[in-house]
Amino acid sequence: MAMGKENVRVLIPQEDLERRVAELAIEISRDYAGRLGGDALLCVGVLKGSVFFMADLLKRLTVPVQVDFFQTSSYGSGTTAGEVRIRKDVDLSIRGKDVLLIEDIVDTGHTVRTVLGLLRFRGARDVRLCSLLDKVERREVEVPIDYRGFEIENLFVVGYGLDFDERYRNLPYIGVLEAEPDPPSPS
Ligand code: IMP
Predict the structure, then answer these.
(1) Which residues of 52-64 are buried (b: 16+ CB within 10 A; e: fewer)?
(2) What is the secondary structure of 32-44 as a DSSP string?
(3) How does pLDDT run across 123-136, given as a tens digit for each residue?
(4) Separation of 107 CA from ligand 1 center, angstroms?
(5) Whose C-alpha lies nearest to ligand 1, atom 17?
(6) pLDDT tens digits along 14-64
(7) How far is the centre of ligand 1, averaged over its atoms, from the C-alpha of 61 (Å)?
(8) Potential cystine with 149: which of 34, 76, 91, 132 (Cβ 3.0-4.6 Å)?
């Protein structure tokens, strides 16, 4: 997708993100308190989009955590729609662990379905999903989201980790890219 000059319209302001992340952290800390049996909660992020959200969320958790990452790539067109490949695997052992998968956005659902399946296959004791955004209209495969930040419309969003062509990840808010109208042509 090529785009000329873009404007970013704020969809979810920074204050709303901060408030919701704090709420999610309270909920997650409460749910896992007492069920880890002295072990740490293994928080697995999906690179690269989840890193901003994950850093803010994990700083607020009150249970012990470990951190690891997957990186995936998807081949989303034509007959290979939904094919997801693991480009970078986790380093830590999954077996017997309570795992919290952390995503920036669930769109079609193929990425998290693949990763959740792999975590279960590797013998995790329990696997849950936390996603900042849920683009529910676009779903092709059903994935239960245990902790969800915001449901959003079918819009292409950037910021707070999410990119367009590797740009915009460092915006402190979630925005929607809009093409700037062409300048009036000289008469
Ligand atoms: P899914 O496999 O279709 O659910 O896609 C999930 C991945 O697609 C996310 O981790 C993002 O990297 C990317 N993605 C989906 N929607 C958007 C968006 O609106 N902006 C930026 N990236 C997106």
Answers:
(1) bbbebbbeebebe
(2) HTTTSTTPPEEEE
(3) 999 999 999 999 99
(4) 5
(5) 156
(6) 999 999 999 999 999 999 998 998 899 999 999 999 999 999 999 999 999
(7) 25
(8) 132
